[in-house]
Amino acid sequence: MQVIMVDQRKCTGCHQCELWCGSEIASESKEIPFSFFDDPQPVPRVFVEGKPFALQCRHCPDAPCVEACPNGSMTRDENGLVYVNETTCIACWMCVMACPFGVINPSSSLKVAIKCDRCRNMGYPICVEICPTNALQLVEREMPKTLSSKG
Amino acid sequence: MRYVIIGGSAAAIRAVEAIRSVDRRSPIDLFSDEPTPLFSRVLLPYYVAEELPKKLLNFRPLTFFEDQEVTSHLGVRITAIDPESRTVTADNGQNFDYDRLLIATGGSPIIPPIPGVEKKGIFPLKTMQDAENIYGSKGKRAVVIGAGSIGVESCISLKRKGMDVTLVEQLGRVLPTVFDDRASAIIRKRMEDLGIKVNTGERAVQFQGNGAVSSMSTEQRDINCDLVVLSIGVNPNVELARAAGLEIGELGGIAVNDRMRTSAAGIFAAGDVVETKDIALDKKSINAIWPCAVEQGYAAGLNMTGKKVLYPGSLRMNSIGNFIGQPAISIGMVSAPTETGGAEAGEAYQEVTRSSKDTYRKLILKGSRIVGATLVGDTQKAGILGVLIKKQIEVGEFVPLLMSHKLNFMEILPLIRRHSDKFSEPEYKELMDTGL
Predict the structure, then answer these.
(1) Which of A100, B78, B160, B174 has the largest count of CB atoms under 10 Å?
(2) Best mutation site among A46, A96, A141 for testing chain B: the one with the most B CBs within 10 Å?
(3) Is residue A108 part of a domain?
(4) B289 in helix, strand or coil?
């Protein structure tokens, strides 16, 4: 499967990915100028961290969040992408507790777990598309031979 | 290969998935004494509160057994296991042969021997029927006995249903096995703000009432009530295993090895019924929680197919979600032990805490490893601490960062890289290869 990788030499930490993820994907209005006034405020699924580095859900082959979810709201699609069924998510934050990357946002205002689904419904991740320096790329994941994608 | 699975909850269902990921063809017979399949026990308080309709309690689609080609026997109880002939006997008299058997019989709610406990209107909350009983109660005043997760969530549920709710807990704080005094006080405050009366350090001694319960006495007071929820805890259902001569551990759960196998050939066990090594406590524990049951079921299932999968041990973790309205997470040890056992072994325990108006964070260190983490308020990065506990990482000079609100995964990448032998999964490797 494909994952989003960051070329660290190119990532300037400009937070454009967060901004676009929050407005284009998460907001009601889908426009940056208006999304600032959304209530509840949209939250991004990508986090510019560290040195800097834009980190989002890694879609782990063996995902602890899927294992921890008590009602199957955290699930995996046929392409291997892990996503939250927001209509059934009960905001228990078991997935937040399980995520080793800390990239599931327990949104108290939206009352659902917010995480990157790699824009599975749009076909192409917005953060990759808008990154001004092309630091974000969609690449094929290298899988060790002993591991296989599972449930 | 013939598989038989006793149980129908988290461990059992995950074991089915594990078996089917390897073996699509062999027959699987699954027995559950509960007629309602595939519902998530931990969500029953949500059902009582009308937060979730019944169909959203399911953690797998209702077509699960069909999809996985499992012969399900719902409402059928297994009454005996014969490890010699490798057969199980059902309560309808039928025998079933197995090559690999999974015991995932879970636990039963503890019914305390308090005088009057048999009166009408007193229920545990474990089965769908229990949830229906409580949901259907016409009561106005409820008492919840036991302030564990189910007890606390039951209080919220009943309060939302408009009842007058009193919580009675024998120990000195709410969620006593989940949080320390400080974190627990924050949850208690939240409960009291919601109008729930919380009485800790108080023991129920008697139920009164003519047929139906009408009041309850503690050593301190009488409380009028027409509904009582018993949430004292669960005991592992080991009767079948014991009668079959399987080894029962020192804590009363089924003893299993690191591949989830019991003392009998071909018989595995997983979930609330087993005792396993707790990674953080470094001793045997019955960690009767959902994530452990899921992991154990998966490991057991794979091992039943003949694969060799090591179960590294269990880790106690609890999350207080939006239901209570005060995010809080605890992983591993709750408080550093006060006895000097750790110090004698050369590894002293240390607690590091930080708090602000709305947040509280605590790490418990044993030597240079984290063995416990508590986060209240700001919880998003809790899982980072969790994986460091689970993989028993020497965190050394990273403690200040781990305590800081600036904690994030990329900041601890040097620590992950230092222990790269323990982070061999592709999702970690690809980040380590970024040259940061």
Answers:
(1) B174
(2) A96
(3) yes
(4) coil
CB A106 within 8 A of CB A94: no
- Token pair for B323: 């239901």
Q: How far is A114 from chain B (nearest CA, A)?
A: 11
Q: Tell me: do B221 and B256 sit in the same domain.
A: no
Report DSSP state, residue B359.
-
Is A141 touching B (CB cutoff 8 A)? yes
Flag if B317 and A67 touch (Cβ within 8 Å): no
If we measure between CA atoms, which residue out of B387, B381, B385 comes closest to residue B423? B387
Does A121 reach chain B within 8 Å, measured CB to CB? Answer: no
* Host H or E run for residue A112: strand A112-114
Beta-carbon-side half-sphere exposure of residue B403 (alpha carbons within 13 Å): 16
Residue-number span of the structural domain to which A77 is assigned: 2-139
Q: Do B321 and A90 touch (CB under 8 A)?
A: yes
Test B59 with A151 for CB contact under 8 angstroms.
no
Tally of domains in chain B: 3
| A33 band by pLDDT with thresholds 50, 70 and 90 | confident
CATH code of A70's domain: 3.30.70.20
Q: How far is A122 from chain B (nearest CA, A)?
A: 23
Distance from CA of A34 to the nearest CA of B (A): 27
Chain B residues in contact with A91 (beta carbon < 8 A): 321-323
* A75: Cα separation from own chain's centroid: 13
Together in a domain, B46 and B184: no
Nearest Cα of chain B lies from the Cα of A49 at a distance, in angstroms, of 6
Same domain, B128 and B267: no
Nearest 5°: the CA angle B209, B213, B217 is 80
Q: Quick one: which H or E segment has residue B283?
A: strand B283-285
Q: Least CB-CB distance to A72: which of B52, B59, B410?
A: B59
Check if A13 contacts B (Cβ < 8 Å).
no
A91:B322 CB<8 A: yes
How many domains, in total, are found in chain A? 1
Is B321 in a helix, a strand, or coil?
coil
Residues B204 and B244 in one domain: no
Determine the structural domain holding residue B126 and report its residue range.
Answer: 122-232
Where is the domain boundary, B304, B319, B338?
B304
Residue B436, pLDDT score: 61
A106 within some domain: yes
Residue B51 in domain = yes
Write out chain A residues lying below 8 Å of B409, CB-based.
Answer: 49-50, 55, 100-103
Same domain for B139 and B64, yes or no, is no
Mean pLDDT of chain B: 95
- pLDDT (tens digit, 9 = 90+) per residue, B93-120? 999 999 999 999 999 999 999 999 999 9
Q: Which amino acid is at B96?
A: F
Exposed/middle/buried for residue A70 (C-beta within 10 Å: 0-12, 13-18, 19+): buried
Percent of chain B with pLDDT over 70: 98
**B295: chain A residues, CB-CB within 8 Å:** 67
Of A71, A99, A151, the CB nearest to B21: A151
| Residue B319 to residue A96, Cβ atoms within 8 A | yes
- Give the pLDDT confidence of B154-177 residue by residue, as tens digits: 999 999 999 999 999 999 999 999
